[in-house]
Design goal:
297 residues, Rossmann fold, 11 strands, single chain, alpha/beta, 6-stranded parallel sheet, 39% helix, globular
Length: 297
């Protein structure tokens, strides 16, 4: 954008998520008439404050759209064997169509083994190796919620993906890698040229300044600065970081991986934190649960 132009259009994730939830609510009612009531089981191990708030938000969202929520809150001392037994039980429970294990898990539990224990057809997080493989070869069904949220935000905001150069900063299995795979697919939700940067990339800003669409997903507060963004680029901020703020009752505030105030003067569109990708991630979880219920039936 030129110095005289207005600052970036804010992409309102809350508003778009509410529209999606309205459609999901109608679908859930329609399924209920056929005797199918989608159910989501959420497992939380331990007392991590961020995880507790995420799980509470997910359960509230289930309630809003009519999805049955099965809540399993386990102590941090829960053993691997106990957790695996619960997952096996939920795999065989026909009222449960989606299983979500809130990450991170306590260090004594093998996260990979837990993810692999979930029935791939109930893996609403899209993390099971079978679902990851389906995504890579272009046959994805249950797509990871946060990358799917990013794509939905871009499409809802009428951002052209085909032929666009997307630069993703961050290569996690939860966001960076699956998002790159989604955007590379031969589909209207893909056909982009994708560059993935990470902690070992030399001079990240050389790459970020070439992006038509810049996605920040490295979990490091205010790392993407205005001089790293090409004027007119679309900026999607996936990061959610708690930083101390003595002026707040909670003692902290949430910020993204992007220096929002500075970057919004350069970008054409930008997502805020909170209120951008977060609400959309939860909407995608609900969509995956309904999708899982329909193909399990």
């Amino acid at each position: 954008m030129h110095p005289l132009s207005m600052s970036a259009k804010i992409i309102d994730g809350r508003h778009i998520a509410e529209q999606i939830k309205t459609r999901i609510r109608a679908k859930v009612q329609q399924l209920a008439e056929t005797g199918l009531n989608p159910g989501l089981a959420v497992i939380l191990v331990g007392e991590d404050p961020a995880s507790i708030s995420y799980v509470t938000a997910k359960q509230k969202a289930c309630q809003e759209v009519g999805i049955r929520s099965f809540d399993h809150r386990l102590p941090a001392s829960t053993t691997q064997k106990q957790l695996m037994a619960l997952i096996a039980e939920l795999n065989h429970n026909h009222q449960v169509h989606g299983i979500l294990v809130q990450l991170p898990l306590p260090s004594h539990i093998d996260t990979h083994a837990v993810i692999e224990a979930i029935d791939p057809n109930k893996d609403v997080d899209g993390f099971h190796p079978i679902n990851v493989g389906r995504l890579v070869i272009g046959q994805g069904r249950l797509l990871p919620c946060t990358p799917r949220a990013v794509v939905e935000l871009l499409i809802s905001s009428q951002v052209e993906l085909e032929g666009a150069h997307v630069v993703i900063v961050g290569r996690s299995n939860i966001v960076g890698r699956p998002l790159a795979n989604m955007l590379l697919q031969k589909a209207k939700t893909g056909n982009a040229t994708v560059t993935v940067c990470h902690s070992r990339t030399k001079d990240i800003s050389v790459h970020t300044r070439q992006a038509d669409i810049l996605v920040a997903a490295m979990g490091s507060p205010n790392t993407i600065t205005a001089d790293m963004v090409r004027p007119g680029a679309v900026v999607i901020d996936v990061g959610v970081n708690r930083i101390p703020d003595p002026g707040r009752k909670s003692g902290y505030r949430l910020v993204g991986d992007v220096d929002f105030e500075a970057v919004k003067e350069v970008a054409s569109m930008i997502t805020p934190v909170p209120g951008g990708v977060g609400p959309m991630t939860i909407a995608m979880l609900l969509a995956n649960t309904v999708l899982a219920a329909t193909f399990q039936q």
